[in-house]
Each structure stands twice: as structure tokens, then as C-alpha cells.
Amino acid sequence: MKEIKETKVFSQSEVQEAAKLLQEGRLVAFPTETVYGLGANALDPQAVEKIFAAKGRPADNPLIVHIANQNKLEELISSELSKQAQKLIDEFWPGPLTLVLPKASKVPKITTGGLETVAVRMPKHPLAQQLIEEAQVPLAAPSANLSGRPSPTIAQHVMTDLAGRISGVVDGGQTGIGVESTVLDLSQGVPTLLRPGGVTYEQLKETLKRVIIDPAVEAKIDNEAQQALSPGMKYKHYAPEAKVVLIEGAQTEIVAKIKELIRGEEGKIGVMATTESSHQYQNAIVKEMGSRNNLKQISMSIFKLLREFDQLGVDKIFIEGLSQSGLGLAIMNRLRKAAGYNIIKV
Ligand code: TXA
Ligand code: MG
After folding, report:
1. Which end of the chain is more exposed for a tag (fewer CB within 10 A), N or C?
2. Which among 203, 218, 233 is the end of a domain?
3. Number of neighbours of residue 23 by Cβ within 10 angstroms
4. What is the pLDDT of residues 246-304, one digit of tens each?
């Protein structure tokens, strides 16, 4: 990483320049409709290695390969597309759905964390599409944060974590969805949801006859065989510096519990609350996630708020739990991980 003197911030009109760096095997972060990604040429093992180094990412955590055109999928996978896969692609691409499929031999093992499968997605964000097209290579791109930190939803988050470690970032303002893509494994038997995200479980069920939810989505998994299926799920994730506690249950009881917890604390306390109950808390720094009736608003704000609490130096953060329907499943999955599964049920 020593060779990088400065991380250049590219405006929307400088995508071509950013694409040139990618062609030279360098790292450039870019906006997608979910979160910012840290891109490198997915077919160049040396470029991909830099991603793991810059993020401090464990080598067995595989990367998602991003394409801008469906024709590019063929060269990345080893089998014919199933009818199911084609249906999903027709329905949800471009968009926040990542498909795990058997990989072609030209995809380096370092990109897939040593696995025989590859995760592929076609982002919907015009700048992401433009960058991939100009670079003329598929881009491996994990979220552009230091490993274990909340995913970046603005270019400044990328700079906070990675300035001096990557060659550039394309600034496209705030990302739309705010939580990452849905990861669906199609490589064996029944389609399995490995990570809930921008495309909801309910939406998948409308398109597919059967979808299994991987147990790691809703609870901490300690068993190694299960961890092997979704390697990304076992690591510490989205965690701010402060201790995080998630309170789950009925809304009135959640509020009462958090009030009680605040009374028992001495340090600097943060509360991540919904608009409906944010006025309820005293003696705490309260940040509004959005309305309970607007999960889109909440998904856009959770990572940003976790970072803001860090900047304020709070010791503990209490978070109001939400319903798990629709985008709620993805939001709760991220909040549980941010809390390190430190959950109080009321
Ligand atoms: O929305 C997103 O998906 C963002 C943007 C930048 O596209 N990317 C992203 O990448 O979230 P990352 O690396 O932070 O998360 C990728 C997830 C991890 O949980 C990883 O384990 C899983 O996808 N994954 C990747 N390849 C896989 C594979 N072959 N089999 C199973 N899981 C895989
Ligand atoms: Mg990530």
C-alpha cells in the first residue's frame, strides 16, 4: 500500500479516469444503489489481493463480481444458466440481487475466497454501470469499508476508512438503498438466502417456488459446517467502537426497556430510535432512523448513524428493534450483527 500517495476523489464526469486506474490493476471505490463498493479487476489476482490488504479482509471471505451486461455472466460461470436463474435475472437485474453460481476456471480462486462458486451481480447505479463498461472488465467489489466497520453510504465514509490505502473513489453522493444486496445461493439444490438485502425474501418467493433462509441470517452460528456455506457471516460486522445492544419485541415494551436501561447507565449513551418514539428518551443522545412505517428510510440511515455515534464518542448504543417483514429482515440482520448478537428480548 506504500505506493499510494493520495486517494483521488473523482467527480461524476471523471469516471473514465477512474476506469483507467482499474485497468492498471489499482483499487477504485464507487457508488452502487446499495452501498459504496471497493472495485478491482476481478480476473486479475494481483489486483484482487490489494482489496483484501486495503480492507484487512480475511482471505476466505469471497467477493462479489460486478458486471454491467448480462452477456458477461457466461464467461464467469461453468454451467448453463438454469431456468430459475434466468427468471431471477429477468426480474431483478440490474438491481440488488447477487447470485451464487458454479465458477468458471478463469475466475481466480482469490476472488472467490477459495470456493468453487462465484457471486455475481449487476448493479443498477448508472455510475457503477458506466465504470464497469469503461474498465471493460468485471469488477470484484466488497463494501468499501475497513473490515468489520459499517458499510459506506457516502464517499466521505470511504475516505474515513480507506484514504491513503486505495487509488480513488468516484463520488456519487448518497447511495439509495443503504444496505447491501441480497445474496442467493443457486449452486446447490433449493435456492438459499445467504444474506437478506435490497431484494426482499417476499419478492424472491413470488418468483421462485421455494427459497430456504440460511440459519445464519437470523441468528449467530457457531457451528463450522454452517459457517462454510456463507463465509461472510462468521466475522465481526458493522460494528462501531461503542458497545451496541439491540432490544427486540413489541414497540411499547422496547421503549420502556430502553428507558430503564438508560437509567442504569453512567457513561455517554446513544439511542437509535424510530421517529415514532424518539421523543421518549432523556439523558441520551438520540438519533432517528426513520419511521417504522418507512423501512426504506431506515435502511438508508442505519450505517450512517452507527458511524455518527462513533464520532460523538458514545460508550453504549441502544437500538430499537423492528419488524422483520420486507426490508426489515435485512435491517434486523445488520443490526444484530452490529450488536454482536447482544440482544435483549422484551
Ligand atoms: O450490495 C452489495 O452487495 C455490495 C455492493 C458494493 O455491491 N457489496 C458487498 O460485498 O456487500 P461484501 O463483500 O461486503 O459482501 C459480500 C457477501 C459476503 O457475505 C460474502 O461472504 C458473500 O457475499 N459471498 C461472496 N461470494 C460468495 C460465494 N461464492 N458463496 C457464498 N457467499 C459469497
Ligand atoms: Mg461488507
Report:
1. N
2. 218
3. 14
4. 999 999 999 999 999 999 999 999 999 999 999 999 999 999 999 999 999 999 999 99
**DSSP for 252-280, written as a single string:** HHHHHHHHHHHHT--S-EEEEEETTTGGG
**Ligand 1 proximity of 35 Cβ (cutoff 6 Å):** yes
Total domain count, the chain = 2
Residue 34 included in any domain: yes
**226 — pLDDT class (breaks 50, 70, 90):** low
Q: What is the pLDDT of residue 241?
A: 84
| SS percent in the chain: helix, strand, coil, step 5 | 35, 20, 45
pTM of the model: 0.95
* 100 Cβ closer than 6 Å to some ligand 1 atom: yes
Are 317 and 244 within 8 A, CB to CB?
yes
- 130 with 256, same domain: the answer is no
